[in-house]
Specification:
This protein is an alpha+beta fold and about 220 residues long. Helix content is about 35%, strand content about 30%.
Amino acid sequence: MTTTLLTEAWPVAALRVTEGDLELRFADDDLLLQLADLAVRGVHAPDAMPFLVPWTQGDPAAVRHGFLAYHWGARAGLSPDAWNIELAVLVGGEPVGMQSVFARSFPVRRTVETGSWLGLEHQGRGIGTRMRRAVVHLAFVGLGAHDVTSEAFADNPRSQRVSQKVGYTPNGAHRTSRGEEAVEAQRYRLTHASWLASERPEVTIHGIEGVRRQLGVPPG
């Protein structure tokens, strides 16, 4: 009896994006457990909250449980109409964080949004900028996006600096809620034309054709 490979049944599992020693790849369960432990060790200062959903709060067991449940749900909910691809970020083979890319009605709108986090022990080394550049390459070259957006709270200057370094421009601000607190968030946008005009590192994408089929994106 022939057994179907996961990468055949679920093509996103074969996705890899590499830039030098940095790699974005499908997060299987082993990687998710390693990343959950990394998150438990710290993602931000105790008095900060850079996320709309405060998933880093709670005891270690609660953080791990919520982390795994969220990522399993993101896998299960993937469809051409609405998808969220959560990619593990590895540097030199070591898991250091996660980079997400998500969209709604992508075959029509051709717009994606990105989100990310890095373990505290890996911050301040330029990894955030590298992983954003890699996922932007995936969006434009791999998926044929027309623009890429991002958003950060006004009190999260690190995330805003990453967007600015990669070439995004401000695209409006709005008020939102973070728990019981009203906060301002800044939107950013990067168009395909602006990205083409910028200096870019060499990035390689593996397994993209199967991903395009799974997401209902016309062949590149």
